[in-house]
Each structure stands twice: as C-alpha cells, then as structure tokens.
Design a protein that fits this description.
297 residues; 16 strands; 3-stranded antiparallel β-sheet; 4 helices; 11-stranded antiparallel β-sheet
Length: 297
C-alpha cells in the first residue's frame, strides 16, 4: 500500500483558508464596429468589453434562476455579489467581418470565469450556513480530522458540498510537487452528492497520509464544479496520481469545465425555450479551496 507522507505537527482545523473562491464559468460573445470614430485596436477592446459585460449579466441571470424564490434575501445578496463581479478570460476566439451597414466589425467569443464580490457572498452565507444551503452558489467545506499531529499519525481529509458537484483533490508537498488524491486509480468516481461528508482516504483508496519529514508548508487543494472538470496530465504512482501538468497551469486546465449542453461547441448560442422565453444561460458553478498545513518538528 502506497503511503504519501504529509509532515506536520499542527493543521488548521475546520478551514481557516489560505485561499477560497466561488465563481461561475460562462460562455459569452461580444461585438463592436469601427465606424468613423474607432481604430481597430479600440474596436477589439470594445468587443471584449461587451463580451465581459454579457458574461456578468448572464451570470446574474443564471444564479437568479437557480435560486429558490422563497430565499428572496439571499437572491438579492447573490445578485449584488455578481453585479460587482470581476471577469477572468479562460478561452478566447475572435475574428473580423464585414457588416453591410456598419462596415468593419469585430466579434469575440470567450469562456470566462465570473468572480463575484467576496464580501457580498459572505453576507449571503451568514443567513444560512453555505454548506447546508443548496440555493447558494457552490461551496465545498474542506477540513481535517484533528488539530495537532505527531510523527506517525495518519491524517484524514473531509469534504462536504452544499449541492452535487464534481471534484479534484490534490496534495502539494514542501517542494512544490503535486499528487492527485481523488480521483485515483482505485477510487475513480469524482461526482459527489450535496449534504454528504466524504472522507479521504477511505473505501477503495490504497494509500495513507502519514506524518513524516521533511517538514515545511504543505497544502490540500480542492477544485469543484457543477460540471465535469477539465483534464490535467497525470501518471499513476501506486494508489494515487502524480500530477505532470505545470503548477501554474493546473488551475487553468481544471477550469476548462465542460459546460452543460455545449460540449461539442464551447461557443454555441444560448438556447431559447419552446415557449419563446429565454431560459437560464448555460453555466458551471466553480469553487476552489486551498487548505494550508503547517509542518514542523
């Protein structure tokens, strides 16, 4: 049985986070035409600004549509959070075309991560614990089994989401190497039910997390989404996977989520219900958490 040695004497218990972020991943399109007052660069910038604006607007529409009407106060907090959102571009395609009326025009198609205002999201969470409230944006709690560990102790990791989610759990060692703990060669499932506590390692896992030197700062990293996560480069190593993707690219590639209904064409037009009413934009809720483990003798 493979053992991954996690060196520590103290672990932050019940999530004092190094990093945690909720977001929504959207597809959006933006347009702009040169006219008589814009250069090509200004037109391209205007098209990108239009795409970002639409990504935020669609994110607001999405989170509003998936939130229950009876939770009106929470709906307002979430809408407020997304109305102040930032936008990070994950994928981009663009091209120029001729419009009969407007002349030279530019179109940009993006996959964007819409990051809501953190303070407003926290305000929503205070009305009901996020881990128990499926009407809030996706949130997954991540914690360990006790506060202090000594040499030879075995660490247990737990996670619990407020709604069904897909997840990837990594361990980052003191030298910056990454191992994927879940899913792994013996425990391949990566879809989890909301409201259920999951334990790592457990079940079919063929590894243990045992305290041993070298000491230093280590991390447990969680990526979760309401859609299947993007792929990273892995190599089986005993009961886990060694991550071969560069550290700076792990989060980017994981965010390449397979947005529901747009697997074949990531920039497909948003659908319209047969009633003629616009349905909620296609989106994926995304959550990242980084639990820091302090190690020492």
């Amino acid at each position: 049985m493979l053992r991954i040695f996690i060196s520590t004497i103290m672990v932050i218990f019940w999530v004092s986070n190094l990093y945690a972020a909720q977001s929504t991943i959207m597809n959006a399109e933006g347009y702009a035409c040169m006219g008589e007052d814009k250069s090509r660069k200004q037109t391209e910038d205007a098209a990108m600004a239009d795409a970002k604006k639409k990504a935020v607007e669609d994110a607001v529409t999405y989170v509003s549509s998936v939130t229950k009407v009876e939770d009106y106060a929470i709906v307002q907090d979430i809408i407020n959070a997304y109305s102040k959102a930032g936008v990070k571009i994950l994928e981009k395609k663009s091209f120029w075309y001729k419009d009969e009326r407007s002349g030279d025009c530019h179109k940009v198609q993006i996959k964007a991560e819409v990051l809501p205002d953190e303070a407003a999201i926290k305000e929503a969470a205070t009305k009901k614990p996020a881990s128990d409230n499926p009407v809030l944006p996706l949130q997954v709690s991540l914690w360990t089994d006790k506060k202090d560990y000594g040499s030879g102790d075995k660490i247990k990791i737990y996670l619990k989401g407020n709604k069904p989610f897909y997840a990837r759990v990594l361990h980052r060692d003191t030298k910056g190497g990454h191992m994927q703990l879940l899913p792994n060669p013996y425990r391949t499932e990566n879809y989890f039910n909301g409201g259920v506590i999951y334990e790592i390692p457990s079940g079919n896992d063929k590894f243990e997390l045992e305290v041993s030197p070298p000491y230093g700062d280590e991390q447990i990293i969680l990526y979760a989404s309401t859609s299947p996560l993007g792929d990273i480069n892995l190599r089986a190593e005993g009961g886990v996977y060694q991550v071969k993707t560069r550290e700076r690219d792990i989060g980017i590639k994981t965010r390449g989520v397979k947005i529901k209904g747009t697997d074949e064409d990531p920039f497909a037009k948003k659908s319209i219900a047969v009633t003629g009413k616009k349905i909620k934009p296609e989106a994926s809720e995304f959550f990242e958490e980084n639990l820091k483990i302090r190690t020492g003798q």
